[in-house]
Design goal:
This protein is an alpha/beta fold. The protein is built from 14 helices and twelve strands. The chain is 31% helix and 14% strand. The protein starts with 6 loop residues before the first strand and ends in a 14-residue tail after the last helix.
């Protein structure tokens, strides 16, 4: 007898921020989303729910994924709270293993929990990995470009699409008869690095069409526009892969009994104020959910969602009680409601944070500890160690007259300088032009030190350019948000506020 519980497809792309054409309904046509069409993500949103305010718990892949898998804040996952040096505590329950114990066939392809030891342990490790066709999709633009001379653009893409199909088929073939499945598809191609110029060559995206559509803190120059275009091309590849999975499930006749959730683990890499930052560009992500018969279609909801809430949500959909140790709470009542706009009156904010990203970014492998609270109108950030460099050791480049490493080094070697920002053409361009008058202030915003507290009025300042924390007109909101943030951190036993000798400042969290 077939189990009637829903299948679960979780498409979760590495370093994919909020880049999908469906978001033009919310943000208009003056952002990079104006250049792209993502029909498969848009279908999920159209036939289900599009979330306007989805945020990651941490803008760094391993701690973010630790939270999502465990349904806890990242600081509650022991060494899962850091990137390099992460070790999984097997005593922490995770939603996929709970589902497996309840009769689900679980599996994944590409990235789930890494870097970390043991590899992908929260999802069953290598035992539940399905990638017999390989993992070249993770270098989509590089591999496709290599194959274009022999196969043409579309033929080169098709080789990588076939890899997605074969890997998913291997997972489905191993499925016990009648069992519902839970599949994590984790493409990494939106992570650095990409083939330069591939946005135009493979996808027809013109960098000049981005003029006037970049955030105000990014230089609106060709080199940066081309870098963004190449990234957008990788986002289109993710959308194409999603479409392949949906078609396969539809061909099986099971699409309407499949809960589909599509999102990413944080914002764009290799750009100031993106990945590894608590600003919107680093923490705001796409999120769409589809489940016909349970989720009314074609709705946009404004509720603030922390992605760690997905763990109890998946369990809720499978009629399972989440363990008491999960600090997240199911959001299933939000998409299954018939309402749009604000559904749950309690979901009006999210708390995000960060500890250690790259181990050698700062002296003695120290982290850059931050916590933030984001509401509809404001972003408040608390920097616990403002004397440290947020993006890592500047290697003397805080002196505008210092000679920088070569463009090639800065495009290809993340560790050469400012190691908490991925190597990229944008990083190289800004470092090489940092002393120019029109670039200097933008460089300081992205690469310089941060004050202890930051407060931004997003109604007037959507790109968080003007810190108003010391403005008397914002004293009341500053106090309110700071108190609210600290209250959550204390309630959830954040070592940053409940420990006098914070564990993140010493071994094993600072081990190399």
């Amino acid at each position: 007898m077939k189990d009637q519980r829903p299948n679960i497809l979780f498409a979760f792309a590495d370093d994919w921020g909020r880049y999908a054409s469906a978001y033009r309904q919310i943000e208009g046509n003056n952002t990079p989303n104006a250049l792209i069409e993502t029909p498969n993500f848009d279908r999920v949103a159209r036939e289900g729910v599009l979330f306007a305010n989805a945020f990651v718990p941490a803008p760094s892949c391993t701690p973010c994924r630790s939270s999502i898998l465990s349904g806890r804040y990242f600081w509650q996952t022991d060494r899962g709270a850091i990137l390099q040096g992460a070790i999984w505590d097997s005593s922490i329950p995770t939603y996929p293993l709970i589902l497996e114990e309840a009769g689900y066939h679980i599996g994944y392809t590409y990235k789930v929990w890494s870097p970390g030891t043991p590899r992908d342990e929260p999802y069953g490790g290598d035992r539940t990995r399905y990638a017999p066709a390989g993992a070249k999709f993770g270098q989509f633009s590089i591999v496709a470009t290599q194959n274009v001379p022999e196969h043409g653009v579309e033929g080169a893409k098709e080789i990588l699409y076939d890899e997605v199909r074969q890997n998913f088929d291997a997972f489905l073939e191993a499925r016990p008869e009648g069992a519902p499945f839970c599949y994590w598809w984790g493409p990494t191609n939106t992570h650095r690095k990409w083939e330069r110029g591939s946005g135009k060559k493979l996808w027809g995206l013109d960098p000049d069409d981005l003029k006037g559509k970049l955030p105000d803190f990014l230089p609106d120059v060709h080199e940066v526009r081309e870098d963004v275009c190449d990234y957008l091309g990788e986002c289109l590849a993710v959308d194409a892969g999603l479409g392949l999975l949906m078609k396969r499930i539809e061909d099986m006749g099971e699409l309407d009994n499949t809960l589909i959730v599509v999102s990413g683990d944080h914002g764009i890499p290799g750009f100031p104020r993106g990945k590894c930052n608590l600003y919107n560009l680093g923490c705001e992500v796409a999120l769409a959910v589809r489940w016909p018969g349970h989720i009314p279609e074609n709705r946009i909801v404004d509720d603030f969602v922390n992605l760690m809430d997905l763990a109890p949500t998946f369990l809720d959909a499978a009629n399972l009680e989440p363990p008491e140790c999960m600090s997240a709470r199911s959001l299933l009542d939000v998409p299954t409601s018939s309402e749009s706009g604000q559904v749950d009156p309690q979901r009006t904010f999210v708390v995000t944070g960060r500890e250690r990203h790259v181990a050698r970014a700062r002296a003695n492998n120290l982290p850059y500890p931050q916590r933030a609270i984001r509401t509809r109108d404001f972003l408040y950030i608390h920097n616990f160690a403002p004397e440290r460099w947020p993006m890592g050791d500047p290697g003397g480049l805080d002196d505008p007259n210092a000679q920088p490493p070569s463009y090639d080094e800065l495009c290809n070697n993340t560790m050469v300088v400012y190691a908490d920002m991925d190597a990229s053409p944008t990083k190289a361009w800004m470092i090489h032009h940092r002393s120019e008058k029109q670039v200097h202030s933008l460089f300081q915003m992205g690469f310089g030190k941060f004050p202890k507290e930051e407060l931004y009025d997003l109604r007037k300042d959507p790109y968080y350019m003007n810190n108003v924390v010391d403005d008397p007109a914002y004293k009341e909101i500053h106090t309110k948000l700071k108190d609210q943030l600290m209250s959550v951190l204390k309630e959830q036993n954040d070592p940053r506020v409940v420990e006098s000798d914070c564990r993140f400042e010493r071994s094993p969290f600072t081990d190399g």
